[in-house]
């Protein structure tokens, strides 16, 4: 069962849904719009290896924007802290952004119950495109789970900004 925008608003007020820096203007019929934070990550290794921690640089997005080159891959994050111990957040890219050639994939669109932090986005520019801090880039919907809830305690808990892959910790 998906929550409506009105129900999301009520659950945020009750503390059952966490949306840091909640803005009523970002509520829609059955989701909440999420904005891009002010920094992105660019991997600097020539070959990325899931068995090691890969090198990267953080880039601050200027207020007047930053152009992503065609074919580039970057990690960004939500400006908002998102999570819930009662509902399953699901992240979706905004279609209007995809229609401009920026593919926004979420690390895992199905967010674990109990995972609370900023959402990491994978940004793939199919054409040169300018991005801005605060750009409405994705949306989150909330779903009611059925069954016993076991809260997430994984390696990405409490993310604050874009987070690189931590798959090397699995080896």
Please, could you describe this protein's structure?
The protein has a four-stranded antiparallel beta sheet with strand order 1-6-9-8. It has a three-stranded antiparallel beta sheet with strand order 2-11-7. Strands 3-4 form a two-stranded antiparallel ribbon. The protein is mainly β and 171 residues long. It has two helices and eleven strands, in the order H-E-E-E-E-E-E-E-H-E-E-E-E. The model has no long low-confidence stretch (mean pLDDT 94). The protein has one domain: Deoxyuridine triphosphatase (dUTPase) (Deoxyuridine 5'-Triphosphate Nucleotidohydrolase, Chain A).
Please report which band the strand proportion falls in: under 5%, 5-15%, 15-25%, 25-35%, 35-45% or over 45%.
35-45%
What is the makeup of the main sheet? Answer: 4 strands, antiparallel
Radius of gyration: 16 Å
| CATH arch. level architecture | Distorted Sandwich
Number of β-strand runs: 11
Give the key terms.
171 residues; three-stranded antiparallel beta sheet; 2 helices; 37% strand; globular
């Amino acid at each position: 069962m998906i929550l409506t925008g009105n129900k999301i608003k009520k659950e945020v007020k009750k503390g059952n849904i966490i949306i840091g820096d909640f803005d009523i203007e970002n509520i829609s019929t059955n989701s909440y719009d999420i904005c891009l934070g002010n920094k992105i990550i660019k991997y600097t290794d020539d070959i990325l290896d899931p068995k090691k921690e890969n090198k990267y640089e953080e880039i601050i997005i200027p207020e007047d924007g930053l152009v992503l080159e065609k074919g580039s891959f970057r990690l960004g994050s939500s400006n908002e802290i998102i999570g819930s111990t009662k509902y399953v957040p699901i992240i979706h890219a905004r279609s209007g952004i995809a229609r401009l050639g920026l593919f926004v994939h979420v690390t895992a669109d199905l967010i674990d119950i109990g995972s609370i932090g900023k959402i990491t986005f994978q940004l793939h520019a199919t054409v040169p495109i300018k991005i801005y801090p605060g750009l409405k880039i994705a949306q989150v919907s909330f779903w009611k789970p059925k069954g016993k809830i076991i809260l997430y305690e994984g390696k990405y808990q409490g993310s604050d900004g874009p987070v690189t892959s931590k798959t090397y910790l699995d080896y």
